[in-house]
Design goal:
It is a single chain. Among the domains are: 129 residues, Jelly Rolls, CATH 2.60.120.380; 83 residues, Immunoglobulin-like (Sandwich). Helix 2 packs parallel to helix 3, helix 6 packs parallel to helix 7 and helix 11 runs parallel beside helix 13. By secondary structure, the chain is α+β, with helices and mostly antiparallel strands. The strands form 9 sheets. A 7-stranded antiparallel sheet has the order 1-13-14-15-20-17-18. A 7-stranded parallel sheet has the order 9-8-7-6-3-2-12. A 4-stranded antiparallel sheet has the order 21-28-23-26.
């Protein structure tokens, strides 16, 4: 096909050319959001970290640089997606709120996921919620309310539930209000730590309103004691919440080894607090410091000016999710050819140092699926800015733009992978047949990475209503076409040298082209109707580039603090943490790591008392066999070659039974394996695992999906009277719905579900000391 470009378009191409700043410190990395709103898989119950662990090698093959993972700390109930935090120091190792695990799994499994991602050269971006905490009180709420706050400082929403006390090694679980209020876990909170308090009102602006729960007040004078009597009620000082948040932020960076952060709802707490915390993660976390290259971005809902101002206020330690660009791409996709592409370049933020262009996220994308996994309807009321259906013809057009502009482009899980199938909740992520990719999206990622978009300056070479052409200077040329049925072709100037042979790596054009002697080239882009192999995009680069992605394995560094106000000694917990006991050589369980075979494991111990002798131990997967150890006074360490790919248990103890009690820190430096099938490597903790197994009720539910009657069969209940609770996918108890429970034959209960809206829910059954939960779908 021969096409002729008119002189007017040549002039427009030339006049539209301009440039922007180069990529930010993090180099324009491709981020995958590794979850969706109601993330769940029946093969990995309460084990999303295991799901991501098994997915990691595929992500490396696809060219993903970093994975954004959901919040990993304990929420108030097991169904929560993670945005209703209760205890930031509980990473799935404490038994509280009726559970040890989080939806990601337990702490060991989460740390393994980080190590496996690093082994595949992939960074881990942790989602963080610092604006609010939720669900004060025991599992039934007892102990959580401060009557004085409820009566005198009502926020109109939380009814004074602002006594936050936490499980720890020194004060494990027992189920009553007195026990709750006497828990001494780190970072307790009182009503003065939230709005309103004696010095600050509430509910007048974005930063002092309890949109999602008790709203944290970070002002220096927001501190004080609870009105409870006979409870754990330590004295607080100035800057209490900011100091505690900073201490936790650094602890988390060291403990987990994550590489960066996505911060939720940053509009709702001060930017200078965020800047403070990020600086400490970058430069004050010792071995774990992320430095200038650390990825960080906030969710800020506002104008481009507001988002730029927030990024500036953090001293560009963080960017934002680019809602301005996303709005234009959303309008383009839904405009069905009527959108003016001239608007796109100017819709992106000006401050692009660390911005994150995106198409969908868990907040914009809330499908209601039928029994076959199809997108049957949409929960538009809870969507933020509306969804873009992955089956929209212009999805790949939008992704071509998001990958071409400046920033760290983010790919949403349901856009990259085809998940509207009967296997939506039941597949193995490492199986292409069970979880196929969308070829166009993976092609665009491949092009961005192999053609090194991020290394070329961003140049807009042509804009017209249906055609946008972007050059990454001397690296690639990206053409975008919004027309449904008409090819778009335009001449553009380019920084590729005259005579350069350019190949279309999208596959839309079969013939290579050459830059002419004047430094110009003609770019043809296919329409969106599917008549070509690609819909609305083309990507040109120097001919001869091929191959996949190889990244070096990266060591994982993780550090545990052994202190009485961390961890948990309850038999249903992981029983990790606690200080070394006085006058005893009893071993303390530090934690577990998952190492690759034939690689070095280095362990270091840093006791608080440098005059006493301690013993640092590496044991097998269940801790029953010591593999190696070291004894010494002060800081001690040793290195061993990992004999096999497996779990390893870290322990520490006083060397002599005359030693005083003390806290220690233990650091592990190791390489995880690239490939793990989690079922092949049980942790098997002996007696503790048996206790945990006995604490779980056996439950079957039918039918699933359910219409009006959910039949629940429970084994092992005995004479206990079970409590049934239904949670929404965002962790809220469905209190407004009345549903009946009646006992039938053979421990079968009937739960009335007709009043529930269609969607995913979690049914939790609580016995006296046992519990279980399962996801079900309401049609």
């Amino acid at each position: 096909m021969k096409h002729t470009a008119i002189l007017l378009l040549l002039c427009l191409s030339l006049s539209a050319s301009f440039n922007t700043r180069a990529q930010g410190p993090s180099g324009g990395k491709v981020i995958l959001q590794g979850f969706y709103w109601d993330y769940y898989n029946v093969q990995y119950p309460q084990g999303w970290a295991n799901y991501l662990t098994e997915m990691a090698p595929r992500l490396k093959e696809l060219g993903i640089d970093a994975v954004w993972v959901p919040p990993s700390y304990k929420n108030g109930n097991p169904a929560s997606v993670g945005y209703s935090p209760f205890d930031h120091y509980d990473l799935g190792d404490k038994f509280q709120k009726g559970n040890t695990k989080t939806p990601l799994g337990d702490k060991d499994e989460f740390l393994r996921m980080v190590a496996v991602m690093h082994a595949n050269g992939i960074e881990v971006i942790q989602d963080i919620v610092l604006n609010h905490v939720v669900d004060a009180g025991n599992t039934d709420g007892s102990g959580g309310q401060d009557p004085y706050a409820a009566a005198n400082y009502d926020d109109g929403s939380t009814d004074g539930f602002k006594n936050f006390r936490y499980i720890c090694y020194d004060t494990p679980y027992s189920g009553n209000a007195t026990n709750y209020l006497n828990r001494t876990g780190r970072w307790p909170k009182n009503w003065q730590n939230f709005y309103p308090n004696e010095n600050h009102t509430c509910c007048t602006d974005e930063q002092n309103s309890p949109y999602w729960g008790p709203d944290v007040a970070y002002e220096s004078d927001s501190y004080g004691q609870s009105s409870c009597t006979g409870c754990y009620n330590p004295v607080q000082g100035e800057n209490y919440m900011r100091d505690q948040a900073r201490e936790w932020f650094v602890w988390f960076k060291k403990q987990t080894g994550v590489d960066g952060y996505r911060i939720d709802a940053v509009k709702h707490f001060p930017a200078d607090v965020m800047e403070d915390l990020l600086w400490n993660a970058q430069y004050n976390s010792l071995f774990a410091s992320g430095g200038e290259e650390m990825i960080a971005y906030g969710e800020y809902l506002g104008s481009n000016y507001d988002m730029d101002a927030w990024a500036n206020a953090t001293q560009n330690r963080a960017g934002t999710m680019d809602f301005g660009l996303r709005g234009s791409l959303y309008n383009m996709v839904l405009g069905q050819g009527g959108f003016d592409l001239v608007q796109i370049p100017e819709s992106q933020q000006s401050n692009r140092l660390r911005t994150v262009p995106f198409i969908n996220t868990h907040d914009t994308f809330r499908p209601i699926v039928d029994e076959n996994g199809n997108y049957a309807a949409w929960d538009t009321f809870n969507e933020l800015g509306g969804h873009i259906d992955p089956n929209e013809p212009r999805l790949e057009t939008a992704y071509a733009v998001s990958m071409a502009v400046d920033g760290n482009p983010m790919v949403f899980m349901e856009d990259l992978f085809v998940m509207d199938t009967p296997q939506r909740f039941d597949h193995r992520p490492y199986k292409e047949a069970e979880l196929p990719t969308r070829d166009a999206i993976s092609n665009i990622i491949w092009c961005r990475q192999k053609l090194e978009f991020a290394q070329g300056q961003y140049l807009v070479r042509h804009t017209s209503p249906d055609n946008l052409i972007i050059e990454r200077s001397g690296k690639a040329i990206i053409g975008v076409n919004d027309s449904w049925s008409t090819w778009q072709g335009n001449w553009i100037p380019t920084n590729f040298p005259p005579g350069t042979q350019l190949h279309d790596y999208s596959g839309a054009n079969s013939n290579d082209i050459y830059v002419n002697q004047d430094g110009w080239v003609q770019i043809w882009t296919p329409p969106c109707d599917g008549s070509n192999v690609r819909r609305g995009y083309t990507i040109w680069g120097p001919a001869g580039i091929s191959g996949g992605f190889e990244r070096p394995m990266v060591k994982t560094k993780q550090e545990w603090q052994m202190a009485g106000d961390l961890g948990d000694s309850h038999p249903w917990s992981l029983q990790q943490g606690g200080p070394l006991p006085a006058n005893s050589t009893a071993e303390r369980l530090v934690g577990k790591i998952f190492s690759s075979n034939s690689t070095k494991i280095q362990l270091k111990c840093f006791p608080k008392d440098k005059t006493q002798s301690t013993t640092l131990i590496l044991a097998n997967h269940d801790g029953t066999l010591h593999i190696d150890s070291v004894v010494g006074i002060g800081n001690i360490k040793f290195t061993i070659n990992s004999p096999a790919k497996n779990w390893y248990t870290i322990k520490v103890r006083n060397t002599y039974d005359t030693n005083p009690s003390q806290t220690v820190k233990v650091r592990a430096i190791y390489k995880g394996p690239k490939y793990v099938r989690v079922a092949d490597f049980p942790k098997n903790n002996g007696t503790k695992e048996d206790l945990m197994e006995n604490s779980i009720l056996d439950m079957d539910i039918y039918p699933n999906p359910a219409s009006s009657d959910l039949q629940v069969k429970i084994q092992g209940l005995g004479q206990e009277q079970p409590l049934f609770q239904i949670f929404t996918s965002d962790g809220r108890i469905v209190r407004q719905v009345t549903y009946g429970v009646r006992k039938g034959e053979g421990s079968v209960y009937h739960v009335e579900t007709s009043a529930l809206d269609p969607g995913a829910y979690l049914l939790q059954v609580l016995g006296d000391q046992r519990s279980t939960q399962k996801l079900f779908i309401k049609q």
